[in-house]
Backbone:
């Protein structure tokens, strides 16, 4: 029989081990504190943190607002492809194009390929179903997209149909094969945006995206490695490095390496419970300064974060972008996309260098 004193010692030892373990987990998640004594010192940190310049083929999504367009105009020489957003298939199943002429002019001056994005309006699920399965809507959208690309002499198209019913998986594959066949005959490229997956999950938001089939049909598959934690989830890293590595490994097992484009976030979120609101780098930094809170860098996740009152904020700095790109490059992939241009730490352009 074990003596009472021995049991107490054993219990105490177990408690100490548990406390140490939990403390290590907390430290690992909190990461390294960003040096700061006042608002100017945190700004100084972000202005002076050492960065590595990395050569990639960069695919940037540019939205119709001035903040995004002006960022592209200033750094167009960093881009291989620019993807202006704003074109949609509307609620009536009609393709409605929209591309700002400033983007087109700057892209052509800087020898940047123009690959406009087209989305199902509001990521409406029933609309996505109609686009893919209604014979008339399907035919009309394909014809109109082809005409839009060819008549404007764009390099290709970026299909961003989201919230697709998983049961429309095969319909999406055949739609993309048909669209690609026609655009290829005109010397144009076809790209598609898909969410990050670590296995062939055929349910939920990403269930309709068949990496293998889409990799065969399209010239490039843009894998959105962000929103691991999203506006409707609990707070946490948006594109953690461990998850990024697993997504890349799965992608390499299903899609030819040269067709993979890894999308990374330029943005952050501020959560109150499970209600998140998107933040730019500038907004995240200004909020941290205004509430005089400590900012931490999670080396494990490659992202910055802080808390105040009942809020929790996670966001990207240039160091975050450097670490994500380095991770992707270490797997032999040299194509990077980012959502979205205009939300970034301005120093990301010290990291991104256009690969010939």
Residues:
């Amino acid at each position: 029989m074990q003596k009472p004193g021995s049991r107490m010692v054993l219990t105490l030892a177990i408690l100490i081990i548990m406390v140490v373990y939990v403390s290590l987990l907390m430290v690992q998640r909190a990461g390294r504190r960003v040096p700061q004594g006042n608002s100017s010192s945190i700004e100084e940190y972000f202005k002076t943190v050492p960065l590595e310049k990395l050569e990639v083929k960069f695919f940037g999504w540019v939205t119709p607002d001035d903040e995004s367009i002006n960022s592209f105009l200033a750094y167009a020489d960093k881009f291989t492809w620019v993807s202006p957003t704003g074109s949609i298939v509307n609620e009536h199943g009609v393709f409605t194009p929209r591309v700002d002429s400033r983007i087109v002019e700057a892209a052509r001056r800087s020898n940047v390929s123009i690959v406009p994005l087209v989305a199902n309006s509001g990521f409406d699920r029933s609309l996505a179903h109609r686009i893919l399965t209604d014979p008339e809507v399907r035919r009309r959208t394909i014809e109109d997209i082809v005409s839009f690309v060819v008549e404007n002499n764009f390099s290709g198209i970026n299909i961003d149909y989201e919230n697709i019913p998983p049961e429309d998986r095969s319909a999406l594959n055949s739609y993309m094969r048909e669209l690609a066949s026609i655009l290829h005959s005109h010397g144009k490229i076809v790209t598609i945006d898909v969410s990050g997956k670590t296995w062939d999950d055929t349910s939920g938001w990403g269930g309709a995206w068949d990496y293998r089939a889409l990799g065969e049909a399209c010239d490039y598959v843009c894998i959105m490695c962000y929103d691991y934690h999203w506006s409707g989830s609990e707070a946490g890293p948006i594109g953690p490095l461990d998850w990024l590595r697993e997504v890349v490994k799965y992608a390499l097992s299903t899609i030819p390496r040269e067709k993979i484009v890894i999308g990374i976030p330029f943005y952050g979120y501020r959560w109150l419970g499970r209600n998140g609101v998107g933040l730019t780098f500038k907004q995240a930094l200004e909020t941290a300064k205004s509430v005089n809170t400590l900012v931490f860098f999670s080396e494990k996740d490659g992202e910055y974060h802080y808390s105040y009152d009942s809020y929790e904020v996670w966001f990207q700095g240039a160091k975050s972008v450097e670490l994500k790109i380095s991770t992707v490059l270490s797997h032999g992939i040299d194509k990077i996309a980012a959502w979205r241009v205009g939300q970034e730490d301005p120093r990301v352009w010290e990291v991104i260098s256009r690969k010939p």
